[in-house]
Amino acid sequence: YWRITDFGNQSEVNGLKAVDFVMWREHLNFYEALIYVEQVVIGRTIEGKEFQKIKWSADYAMREMQPADKKGNYNFIYKEKPTREDLSAIGRYVTADTLDYFHCRVVEQYEYCGKSKKLNRDVVHIFKSNKDYPIFLFDYGTFQKLYRPHEMEKKNRFLYIGQKPKEYIYGMEQIKECHNEFLDETEADIAPPQDKPTAKVRDLFRCSGESDALNLHSLGFHVYWLNSESAEFTYEQFKLLDDLCESHYQIMDLDATGQAQALRNALKHINIYSIELPEWLKRKKDFRGNPCKDL
Hints:
The protein is 23% helix and 23% strand.
């Protein structure tokens, strides 16, 4: 493939690939550079207008505290239904039903009553989602989890509201309430495995987090996940899950953390099957420009 070198500016432009050159010239990140090439270079759809960079943040505003506002509180306004952009932020095959199944709602905007560093007093901070920056809320009853998939700082994608339990199995409710796959009205009862008489599903997958789980569920599989990829459950918790399925699998990330955790799980729970994502996935990049490593 071709590379670009500016012999008058080799300190900055020396053997750059085409996309890297666009990133340098237009001051864009990797994903934005791909959109620029598609729209401006190939499609020429801009028609002389300035290329609109993607906004990797919520629309922000603030207001003064009112008597009904209480410091530390969150207030949410939800969309009636998710847009195509909202759904694609999680996965290609994720639908509104997928979100609803896991008690996930799309946030139009949310407010947080707290201190303003700039004004040095309490105000109501208002964060509004937009087409480039969707916001989701998983409601687990006693606590909630705010999910902002397009947050550029990965560590800031999640925000827990309320007291998160130390040990929690996300998806357990759905597994317990799902259709029993060993009962078939047309073919009569199909007996579950003899060593697992309480099994309800044939295959059950442990995923590394919400996004992976929702993507895999959208393809028709039963899933669960823990507080983090590196979280471990007790033998009793594992036995409870394992007894609900005929075959038990784990799909961890391709990075070092994911692979190390997959090995620990496999050694600790010898009857869990490990599925490793293909190595070629690392050759692809996410919108941050990092190698892909998960579902």
